[in-house]
Specification:
The structure is a single chain. The chain is 55% helix and 11% strand. By secondary structure, it is mostly helical. It folds into two domains: 136 residues, Ribonuclease III domain (Ribonuclease iii, N-terminal Endonuclease Domain, Chain A, Orthogonal Bundle), CATH 1.10.1520; 67 residues, 2-Layer Sandwich (Double Stranded RNA Binding Domain). The protein has a three-stranded antiparallel β-sheet, covered by helices on one side. Strand 2 and strand 3 form a beta hairpin. Helix 10 packs across helix 11. It is flat. Its EC number is 3.1.26.3. It catalyses: Endonucleolytic cleavage to 5'-phosphomonoester. Its main location: cytoplasm.
C-alpha cells in the first residue's frame, strides 16, 4: 500500500487498529496497541514534510504557503489518500464501528493514514517517512490542491466587498457515534440568507456551507 519496506509488523498492525477493535476484546485488548500514538507522531512528520516541500518548491508568500499546507495536511486530504491506496478494507475495527460505516469515515481514514506515516518514521527514520509522503502526496502537491482560495476566506472577502455583515456559523446538529459523526452547520449573512451543509467534521461542514453560500448568493 505505502510502498515502503514493511519491517516491524507489529507497528504497521497497530497503525491499522482502531480503538473500537481493542475495546471489543475486553481485558485482552489492553495488550493490543491502537493507532492513536502513531497518529500523533505521523501528524507531525506529515506537517514538516509538506511544509519543507512547499517551501523548496517555489517563492510563494507565507500566506499562500499556509493555505496550501492546511489543505494538504487536512483530515479530508489524508482520507482521500487513504482511499486511493485501498486502506478502508485493511482497517481493524470493532463490529459496531464497522457496521456504522467507520471504514469509510474521513476521521478514521485520516487518522490511520497519519498513523502509517508515524509507523514508517518510527521504524525506518525520517528519510523513509518523507519518501513515503512525497510518493503518496505527489499528485496533490503537483496539482491544484490548496491553490484556490479557501471557501471561508472567499466568503469573508465577499461579505466585506459587498458591505455585508461578517458570516456567522452555527452548529445545527451533531449525530452518529464519535467514529462516524455527522455535523450539520449553517452559515448566514444578515440580509442575504442562510445555507446548511453536512460533513464528517465541523470544520469541513463549515467549508462546504461557505462554498454553497457563495454558489447561491455570490
Amino acid at each position: 500500500m505505502s510502498g515502503v519496506n514493511v519491517g516491524g509488523e507489529a507497528e504497521w498492525v497497530a497503525a491499522l487498529t482502531h480503538g473500537s477493535f481493542t475495546a471489543q476484546l475486553g481485558p485482552k485488548g489492553k495488550s493490543v496497541q491502537d493507532y492513536q500514538r502513531l497518529e500523533f507522531l505521523g501528524d507531525r512528520v506529515l506537517g514538516l514534510t509538506i511544509a519543507d516541500w512547499l517551501y523548496n518548491n517555489g517563492q510563494e508568500a507565507e500566506g499562500r504557503l499556509s493555505q496550501r499546507l492546511n489543505v494538504l495536511v487536512s483530515r479530508q486530504m489524508c482520507a482521500s489518500i487513504a482511499r486511493q491506496i485501498g486502506l478502508p478494507e485493511h482497517i481493524r475495527l470493532g463490529k459496531q464501528a464497522r457496521d456504522d460505516g467507520g471504514s469509510n469515515s474521513d476521521n478514521i481514514l485520516g487518522d490511520v493514514m497519519e498513523a502509517l506515516i508515524g509507523a514508517c518514521f518510527h521504524l525506518h527514520g525520517f528519510d523513509a517517512a518523507r519518501a513515503m509522503v512525497r510518493r503518496l502526496w505527489a499528485q496533490a502537491v503537483g496539482g491544484q490542491a490548496g491553490q484556490a482560495k479557501h471557501p471561508k476566506s472567499a466568503l469573508q472577502e465577499w461579505a466585506a466587498g459587498n458591505r455585508r455583515k461578517t458570516p456567522e456559523y452555527r452548529l445545527v446538529d451533531r449525530s452518529g457515534p464519535d467514529h462516524a459523526a455527522r455535523f450539520t452547520v449553517a452559515v448566514g449573512i444578515k440580509g442575504v440568507g442562510e445555507v446548511e451543509a453536512v460533513a464528517n467534521s465541523k470544520q469541513e461542514a463549515e467549508t462546504l456551507a461557505a462554498a454553497e453560500f457563495l454558489r447561491q448568493f455570490g
